[in-house]
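Please, structure for the following, as tokens.
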Amino acid sequence: MATTSSATSVINDLIEINNDRVAGFEKAIADINDENIDLKAIFQGYAEQSRKNGQELAAIVGSVDEIETGNSVTGTLHRVWIDVKSLFGGSDRASILSEAERGEDAIKKAYQDALSSNDLPYDAVEVVRSQAQEIYSAHDNIKLLRDAAKA
């Protein structure tokens, strides 16, 4: 399905930040110490969620030449996950979850911006809205875990 240039740009931004989210969670999974092993399963689920999101968004874009396949390197919104990836290390649970929440804040904002942009065609809005609900839920779960770790 062909989309307008601005819609393709918005969707590609979401694909990029989902790719960043996958990379961030994979980095965290690799660096988490055994005492936080339960976080590995949670993070694996969220990485898989973003892989699925990226595939659904790529299907909307349609043309292989227009689909974003990499991680972002520019743009302040997308740099957040890259910064988060470098901060994960086998540190304490609260720190790991605080950094994960920062990344989730960025992807949550990206979805809010996409939905408020008015650049998306109707079928894309439905997909993005559905994905946004999952992202918001993941954000809230990580925040709850972080708050519990600080207590």
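The two ends are 49 Å apart (CA to CA). Confidence is low (pLDDT under 50) at residues 71-79.
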